[in-house]
Design brief:
Bound molecules: zinc ion
CATH class: Alpha Beta
Structural class: alpha/beta
Number of helices: 11
CATH superfamily: Glycoside hydrolase/deacetylase
Strand content: 15-25%
CATH topology: TIM Barrel
CATH architecture: Alpha-Beta Barrel
Largest sheet: 9 strands, parallel
Shape: globular
Length: 298
């Protein structure tokens, strides 16, 4: 009798587990990617970023004093590293050393990018630091993309200007490209940063994915710590490269396989992923969140 009851309970548990796994795939997750720019100058604040989820990517200024250290630390955590390449701004902003200029020759641009690749090890992509003048110049951006194609780096257009030609140049040169949707911290006001964070979440839900860029500043770090601790269950934090379209040789794979290739999660990660997205778990999490004082972190 006891044996039969035990068997019944085991069978019931297996059924429940299977149902949960089946339901898991019916909930679409919106993907949110966060990139922290200007890394390499402020170790104290940047170390706080390193304590955040490893899906948050670092964009490192190649000539910053701690560029190599931060790239190495990030890589050791499995965190994505980008080169934060200084590009010519509009107007008379102070410029970093080796800022890419529209008038530069192909070989000058190649030398500067080669130097950046050396100073920021493990980088898999590049985004622009400033660059409203440089990115608006198609011919100049094509020179950049030719070099990125050789290094097999993707480009994330920070979109510092609506005139940007970065995507057009990347497509022309066969470089994979992404675009920033939200700047989290144009303002240092935590309320405004929170507002932008929520905007990024809404854009991710609407479009399936969104990329937000922030900086290692105290207010941004405080807001990120807050908001990431209560990230809605339908939002999946991902590294930016996981939002890239599959390359032609991978085109026969599903987007899921593509993600698996980039992140190579173990079976445990897959199981965690399934559970965190199951309807049952999400409903429980929502109930739990509602029962908390709602103004605690707002
Ligand atoms: Zn920057």
């Amino acid at each position: 009798m006891v044996g039969k009851i035990a068997l019944y309970l085991v069978r019931k548990s297996i059924c429940l587990l299977l149902i949960t796994l089946l339901l898991a795939d019916t909930v679409p997750a919106a993907k949110l990617s966060i990139v922290i720019d200007d890394v390499g100058y402020r170790l104290q604040q940047e170390n706080l970023i390193l304590r955040m989820p490893s899906a948050i990517a670092l964009a490192i200024l190649p000539n910053a004093p701690h560029a190599r250290l931060m790239a190495t630390k990030a890589h050791q955590q499995g965190r994505e590293v980008l080169i934060h390449m200084p590009m010519a701004p509009l107007g008379k902003h102070p410029q970093e050393r080796d800022t890419l200029q529209p008038a530069m020759t192909q070989s000058e641009i190649r030398r500067i990018i080669a130097n950046a690749v050396d100073r920021v090890p493990y980088a898999v992509g590049m985004n622009n630091h400033t660059g409203s003048a440089m990115t608006a110049n198609l011919a100049a951006m094509e020179k950049v993309m030719r070099v990125l194609a050789d290094y097999q780096l993707y480009f994330l257009d920070s979109r510092t200007t609506v005139e940007t030609k970065a995507v057009a140049a990347a497509v022309k040169q066969g470089v994979k490209v992404l675009e920033r949707k939200v700047f989290l911290d144009d303002s240092a006001n935590p309320d405004e940063i929170r507002f932008q964070f929520k905007r990024a979440i809404n854009l991710a839900r609407r479009h399936g994915a969104a990329i937000a860029i922030g900086h290692p500043r105290p207010a941004t770090i405080a807001v990120l710590q807050q908001m990431l601790s209560k990230l809605p269950a339908d939002i999946e934090l991902v590294a930016p490269s996981s939002l890239l379209p599959p390359s032609p040789q991978q085109s026969d794979q599903t987007p899921k396989d593509h993600n698996r290739l980039l992140h190579s999660p173990a079976w445990w990660d897959s199981l965690k992923h399934y559970f965190s997205h199951s309807l049952i778990i999400q409903t429980l999490q929502r109930y739990w969140q509602q029962s908390e004082p709602t103004d605690k972190n707002r």
